[in-house]
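U., I forgot to send this yesterday:
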Amino acid sequence: MEKIWFITGCSKGFGRALVEQLLETTNSFVVATARKPETLHDLEKSYASRILVLPLDVMKNDQIQKAVDAAIQRFKRIDVLVNNAGYGLVGAFEECAMEDIRHVFDTNVFGLMAMTQAVLPHMRHQKSGHIINLSSVAGLVSMAGASIYNSTKFAVEGLSEGIALEVAPFGIKTTIIEPGPFRTDFAGDSIKISPLNLEYADSPANAIREYMTQTNRNQAGDPIKAARIMIQLTHMDHPPLRLPLGNIALERIALKFDAQAREFAKYETLARSADYTSSPESS
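Result:
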């Protein structure tokens, strides 16, 4: 049986690449959603029998439910949910306005939560499904100047890890994708840059602004290869809970884990000293 995919954020980047690869290289059916569905009309025209294009802003719960209902009405089931919609916020924590912080959390975290809650009842009923959440290397390794974006992706990591334990008894799989820099528009149109506070002009937090400009459209990661890997994951009996994508992601995560292990070892005695030396009942 061919799978029914439901993907958010399909107008560009990973979402667009994944929809294209599914339609071009598989016989799967795709529910492709975007805030601007007109960006997908070319695919809708070429693959009318296998694609359902729907408007969806993950910050709008009514649109989420309407999209899920339409998907079920058209294809009767949802086998794979890809939570891809999201964007970045650059700037030192102090530079980021609370309005912008709330907005990026509403999209990257609460939108993902609402989308997943809307689809899970159908997957539970089916006793099968696969949730693929797009996190980032930034969900495991923080970077100066991206503390807010980091915190949204750290939230996705913790949420996904917990969900994986909760839904496994229903036959539902969960995978967290952790890309490094990929040649999408993430460093361009998909990122909001906070106004510079001159106090941070010479700080590591400001360096990320130049980094984004230099790397935009020059990243090492290939979105088409990433899409093909995600498709491959859905055919595995036991897919990984986490999958970093790209050499940069693997290297940054390995360095973080190595430094963390060394720090744990250095302070192990101090950490263990926090427990009672004997149980409270016997003292």
